[in-house]
Amino acid sequence: MDFEEKLRAQLKPVLESLNEEKKTIERTIHGLAAPFLKVNYDDEIFLDDYVLDFRWGCEDSPYGWCTYNDEDDPAHDTCIFCGLPQERK
């Protein structure tokens, strides 16, 4: 393994971690901005692969609403913060 391959191997987990942090920050910014967007609060808003459901408050969510990963959970069975399904209430 040459120097470049070693460096790449060492940097890969760091870059992956930074990318996850970037996604978390983007979701947080979108979620915090959501109350200022013109949305129907009886509905949902899609942010990238995530869905904020304004019908259900969520004390565990930094946004205040249940949030679902639409890519991994298209049925919205598990809020990424409180773990409860959309149809529970």
What is the spatial order of strands in the main beta sheet?
Answer: 1-2-3
Structural domains: how many: 1
- End-to-end CA span: 56 Å
Share of helix, binned? 25-40%
Number of distinct helices: 1
Kindly name the structural category. Answer: alpha+beta
Low-confidence stretches: none
Radius of gyration: 17 Å
Give the overall pLDDT as a whole number.
Answer: 79
Give the SSE string.
HEEE
DSSP E strands, number: 3
How would you sum up the global shape?
A: elongated
Largest sheet: 3 strands, antiparallel
In terms of DSSP E residues, the strand content is: 15-25%
What's the layout of helices and strands?
Layout: H1 3-33, E1 44-47, E2 50-57, E3 65-69
Antiparallel strand pairs: 1-2, 2-3
Structural write-up:
By secondary structure, the protein is α+β, with helices and mostly antiparallel strands. The protein has one domain. Helix content is 35%, strand content 19%. It has a 3-stranded antiparallel beta sheet with strand order 1-2-3. The N and C termini lie far apart (56 Å).
Give a brief description.
By secondary structure, this protein is α+β, with helices and mostly antiparallel strands. The protein has one domain. It has 1 helix and 3 strands; from the N terminus they run αβββ.
Question: Any key phrases for this structure?
Answer:
alpha+beta; elongated; 3 strands; 19% strand; single chain; 89 residues; 35% helix; three-stranded antiparallel beta sheet
